[in-house]
Structures are given as structure tokens and as C-alpha cells.
Inverse folding.
């Protein structure tokens, strides 16, 4: 399947909250248990049926992502690459990729976000199928002041969006996964840099909110969202993945498995990928999936 929606995977920044681990590498290349961090948001985009994906990162880090991911053919998808010379905000991604998007609807995933849910694929495909407007996902957290926060009115409709509020009006944080219609790049051009000099994704989402076309989906019980941008969260993400995989025997964040489940590649292609990592548990599980054991 191919929804016609394009995907942007934003894997830039200097990872200062993870220094010294990120002094010599991108944080999105750090391991989250048995896979590079970037595999998790990549898998999420693929679960939405997205097969045309642009990876945006720093000029220094782009060659490493090319080496890791290649052109995408092994996963039955297409990868493009583009540099973000300086970290000028999440919404800048839509200006960097504007000509590549070519007025197509798109999804943006942040490279340090992990979302896990049994019904994630259906949720993503539903968002990608929306003809107009934008869809974001909210998750209840204990520290909403770290994120963009969405408030709701008495009828449960989104009523306000505030970026990193000192006194949050709601415990619902907007996660690093966003779906937009074909107007997103033109809307991004309307945004002005915030006080910290960035083009804020919250300001972009507010444009859709104010015109009444922002859909906010709450990720409730049975869902997990982890922002692995600080050491504690990075450790928690790794432990979460290890627990799910060892206890339930299912994979989390494997682009190869998702490609097979989505019909992007066949069993023979999956065996080839498994054969490239024969000494790992990940390789064994992929091989079992290809052989029909799972």
C-alpha cells in the first residue's frame, strides 16, 4: 500500500541534553536497546503506509544516516536526504522540504520520539487519510512544561496550544508526530521566529487550530510515548523496548519487520535482511517471521 502521503523524519540538532554521548554522533544514532534511535520513528511513519521519506539532519551527520539507511530499497521505500544547517525549529523542516513535498500531504516525525500501541498502524493510516487539516497526538504526562501543551474545552475539543508553558493548563503534551495537508509549507512561511529564535511547531499547529481544522487524538491507556532526548528517558526507552521484546516476543521499532507486515517487502527480502545480522536476537526473530513462525 501507499497512501500518497510523504514523510519527513527530522533528526537534526546537537543533542546538548545528551552530552557527552552526542559530542561525536547524532543522538538519533544512539542505541535504544538493540536498534538505533531513528529506527523507531521511521517504523512509525512506515506503519502509516508512507513509502516516500526524507531524512533531515545536520550536514555533519547526514553521511552517517545515509550509511545506515541507504536509499530505502531494502525496506521497499524511498529515502531522500537534506541538510538543516542550523537548528532553527521543527517547522523549518517544511521549508527545507518544500520543493520535495510538491504540495503533497505529509507527516513529520521527530527522530527522538518512540510511540508504541497495538492499534498504532490503524491510527496512523486514519490520520494520513484525512483530506484536509492537521492531526496531532496528545499524551498525558507528569511534566507538561517540557512540551507543547494542548488544552480542551468542555466538549473535549482542542481549545489552546502553548509551547513549554511555565504553568501548564493541561497535562496533555503534543507528541513528536504530526500529519498535515498540502498547505503546510505555505503556513510554515507565515510563522515568525519565537523568542528563542526558532520556528515553533506549536505556532504552525495553532494556525490549523484557529481555522478549526486541527484534529487532536488522545493516546490513552495501552499506548506508550517516550521522548528519548535526555539520559533518563533514553534509559527508560531502552528498558521499555527490552521488556516488550523479551516478555512478549514481539519487535518494537524494526523497519524490516514493519516493511514485511505492510507488504512493502516479501519473505525472501526479509530473510536477506535477517542474514545480515545473523549473530543477533533481532536477526533470529526476523528470520522466524520470514519463515512464518511468528
Amino acid at each position: 500500500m501507499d497512501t500518497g502521503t510523504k514523510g519527513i523524519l527530522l533528526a537534526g540538532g546537537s543533542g546538548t541534553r545528551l552530552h557527552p554521548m552526542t559530542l561525536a554522533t547524532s543522538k538519533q544514532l544512539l542505541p535504544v536497546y538493540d536498534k538505533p534511535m531513528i529506527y523507531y520513528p521511521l517504523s512509525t511513519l512506515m506503519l502509516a503506509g508512507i513509502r516516500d521519506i526524507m531524512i533531515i539532519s545536520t550536514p555533519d551527520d547526514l553521511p552517517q544516516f545515509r550509511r545506515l539507511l541507504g536509499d530505502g530499497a531494502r525496506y521497499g521505500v524511498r529515502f531522500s536526504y537534506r541538510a538543516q544547517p542550523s537548528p532553527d525549529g521543527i517547522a523549518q523542516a517544511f521549508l527545507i522540504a518544500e520543493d520535495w513535498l510538491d504540495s503533497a500531504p505529509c507527516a513529520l516525525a521527530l527522530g527522538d520520539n518512540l510511540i508504541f500501541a497495538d492499534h498504532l498502524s490503524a491510527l496512523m493510516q486514519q490520520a494520513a487519510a484525512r483530506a484536509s487539516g492537521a492531526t496531532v497526538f496528545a499524551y498525558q504526562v507528569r511534566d507538561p512544561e517540557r512540551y507543547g501543551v494542548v488544552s480542551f474545552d468542555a466538549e473535549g475539543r482542542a481549545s489552546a496550544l502553548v509551547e513549554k508553558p511555565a504553568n501548564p493548563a493541561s497535562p496533555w503534551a503534543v507528541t513528536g508526530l504530526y500529519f498535515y495537508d498540502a498547505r503546510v509549507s505555505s503556513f510554515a512561511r507565515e510563522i515568525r521566529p519565537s523568542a528563542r529564535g526558532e520556528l515553533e511547531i506549536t505556532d504552525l499547529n495553532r494556525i490549523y487550530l484557529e481555522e478549526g481544522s486541527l484534529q487532536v487524538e488522545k493516546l490513552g491507556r495501552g499506548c506508550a510515548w517516550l521522548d528519548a532526548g535526555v539520559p533518563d528517558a533514553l534509559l527508560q526507552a531502552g528498558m521499555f523496548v527490552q521488556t516488550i521484546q523479551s516478555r512478549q516476543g514481539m519487535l518494537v521499532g524494526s523497519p524490516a519487520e514493519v516493511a514485511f507486515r505492510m507488504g512493502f517487502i516479501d519473505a525472501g527480502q526479509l530473510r536477506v535482511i535477517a542474514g545480515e545480522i545473523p549473530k543477533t536476537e533481532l536477526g533470529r526473530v526476523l528470520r522466524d517471521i520470514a519463515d512464518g513462525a511468528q
